[in-house]
Amino acid sequence: MKKISTIFLLLAFILAIPTNAQSGWTKAKNDYFFILDYSSYKSSDFRNNDGKSLKTSDFSQKAVSIYGEYGITDRLTAITSIPLFKQNGYETTNNVSGFGDVRLELKYQLLQKLFPLSISVAPELPTGRANNFATNNQNPLDQINLPSGDGEFNVWTTLAVSHSFAPSKLYASAFSAFNYRTTYEDRDFQNQFQSGVEVGYKIFDKLWMNSKVLIQTGVGKGPQFADFIRGDGTTYTAVSVGGMYELGNNFGITAQYFNTNSAIVKAKNVYTNNILSFGIVYQKK
Q1: pTM of the complete model
Q2: Which CATH number characterizes residue 186's domain?
Q3: In sequence order, what E strands does the chain have?
Q4: For 107-144, what is each residue's pLDDT tens digit?
Q5: CB–CB of 194/17 below 8 Å?
Q6: How many domains does the chain have?
Q7: What residue range is the signal peptide (predicted)?
């Protein structure tokens, strides 16, 4: 189980979800895992700051990203997430696109054996386009900013624990994460807290299935002007199911379904949606 990389590659830009494998395991030395991922969603169900549903014109986002893990040592893994392309737009506007915010991460395994425990620190760099204006199709003078990056430097810190139920091919993980956010154009962003659990099982010796439930809430004083497109003041419950099918020793394909809702934590300042993602994996294990 040490070499397993669970898949949770979603639209981190809108939902501020960490794209790392949130588990207690690290990669073995010189082992690696890379995935090229495509994600897409469309929604008209916006939840405001009070959690009330507002009908809008369809908002859509498409994204292409690269995610990778590399084992520096058996207990230290380097991780990166690179959003190569993000396209945003409303039904009533043109689509705008750009490069996203790059995330760099170091993950260290504190405990091994029965209950691997890891801690990771992940700075996210403001490499995306913080200002990217879409134009109303009916009125060129009416514009809305749909950036491909949030414009601020932030740092995720994650603590995760896992367990393999050997000799069965079942595993489970739990994690908590804190996102320290800074400012953009003298505007303070609210910090964020996430926690979640994941269960996975290997089928037919080639197919890994996984399911995850997580919540996100704000920490500290709420934002004066909540901004969904930058993930500010955003809370939600999220559920995902998906898997990876191994094609030989090095290649694989992934598929993931992801939904945001109010099942545990009320969805606020976010579009409730159904996200689909597909990826191609290259790995050494």
Answers
A1: 0.90
A2: 2.40.128.130
A3: 32-47, 53-71, 76-90, 96-98, 103-111, 117-124, 133-135, 143-145, 154-164, 170-181, 183-184, 187-188, 191-203, 207-219, 236-247, 251-261, 270-271, 274-284
A4: 999 999 899 999 999 999 999 999 999 999 999 889 99
A5: yes
A6: 1
A7: 1-21
